[in-house]
Amino acid sequence: QVQLQESGPGLVKPSETLSLTCAVSGYSISSGYYWGWIRQPPGKGLEWIGSIYHSGSTYYNPSLKSRVTISVDTSKNQFSLKLSSVTAADTAVYYCARHHDDGSGSYYNGWFDPWGQGTLVTVSS
Amino acid sequence: SYELTQPPSVSVSPGQTARITCSGDALPKQYAYWYQQKPGQAPVLVIYKDSERPSGIPERFSGSSSGTTVTLTISGVQAEDEADYYCQSADSSVVFGGGTKLTVL
């Protein structure tokens, strides 16, 4: 059974870069699927950040695109998120998840399952 | 930007039927997905492709679609179903609804 686990600093200073890693077990990333990042500010709803295909193609939320980089390391079976120039508005629980394709060939037509447990990242000096 | 609209809250008594709606202009041509999120936990997929139920999800969870509205129906609601529910779809990008808090009275 596929399991995902996020890791990274829980506290980041304003203007710095947030870096998180998602370790995948029970499935080889290089075998397929998209892999995504979603965040949830405290007490608020879910926001898709971006996804990466197992081949390395990336897709980002237009509202975050200028600050986001997602990469994959198939040798370690993990993928990573970098979000630059963070502010307090980036404080959130960050989740990674396997991103399924509905068969249409468009990355955005799909669902997320399973999810990691999430990790809280606070942006504060 | 594209938006999916959900009611902020729905309340039902145990054993009754809960219906949570999600509206969006692109829903007639895009699938919708539903997630359940309990406090302090990660979201869990309960419906995919409008009406398909993943393995392990109870049969009381069902989904339907009509025009610009999709609906998550929970039949015979149990106390354990109290949670936030989010719809998700797309219109050239991935979009989540604002979430609906289901309260079991």
Question: What key phrases describe this protein's structure?
Answer:
heterodimer, A: 125 residues, mainly beta, seven-stranded mixed β-sheet, four-stranded antiparallel β-sheet, B: 105 residues, Immunoglobulin-like, three-stranded antiparallel β-sheet, 45% strand, cell membrane (chain B)
Overall number of strands of chain B: 9
Radius of gyration of chain B: 13 Å
Continuous helix count of chain B: 0
- The assigned structural class of chain A equals mainly beta
In DSSP terms (H or I, runs of 4 or more residues), the helix count of chain A works out at 0
Low-confidence stretches of chain A at least 5 residues in length (pLDDT < 50)?
none
| CATH architecture descriptor text of chain B | Sandwich
Number of individual domains of chain B: 1
Strand content range of chain B: 35-45%
Q: How many E strands of chain A?
A: 11
The helix fraction of chain A, in percent, is: under 10%
Largest interface: A-B, 24 and 25 residues
Distance between the termini of chain B: 36 Å
Which H/E pattern describes the elements of chain B? EEEEEEEEE
State the oligomer.
heterodimer
CATH topology of chain B: the name is: Immunoglobulin-like
